[in-house]
Prior knowledge:
Layout: E1 5-7, H1 9-39, H2 49-71, E2 75-77, E3 92-99, E4 105-113, E5 125-128, H3 132-137, E6 145-149, E7 155-166
Parallel strand pairs: 1-2, 4-5
Antiparallel strand pairs: 3-4, 3-7, 6-7
Amino acid sequence: MGDKIKLTQKGYDEYLKRIESYRDELTQNNKDKSSSYMAETGNGWHDNYDFEESKRKELAIMKKINDAKASLKNIEIIVEKSRPNNLVNIDDIIEVKMIYENGSSDNDKFKLIGGSFPEFKDAYDEVSLNSAIGSILYKAKIGSQVSYNTAEGKKIVVEILSKIGSDQ
């Protein structure tokens, strides 16, 4: 059994839409594959680069669909019953101080999202609840310090400076 994927209802709906977009991508690829097959008179698929490429792309898309569908059973929908103002909640925009092992630091702004597809915005970066940093920020107290280890094994301390907004 895989790790739980925590999503809000909105995040879950986006996840399902992403699977549907993969299916649309597969349908279009199949049309392209058929066209490239028909374009090669005589040999058909032999020595037909476009057809071969469409077949490779089809396998990659099918893997994305299968992986996404397999992960559906691991999704846990998060419903926040209360939103204490002194804790980091889903859809909050916070300012943090990132403190690195070498002693350097910088300030950043994040929005904690309950979806799987974060975006990078001008004013702040979105951070998924399921990411290493998102999981430690969720329900952490404003003013506290939390830490996590990067994939490279480096420890980063995050000081939660303030809550500067919410999209709730």
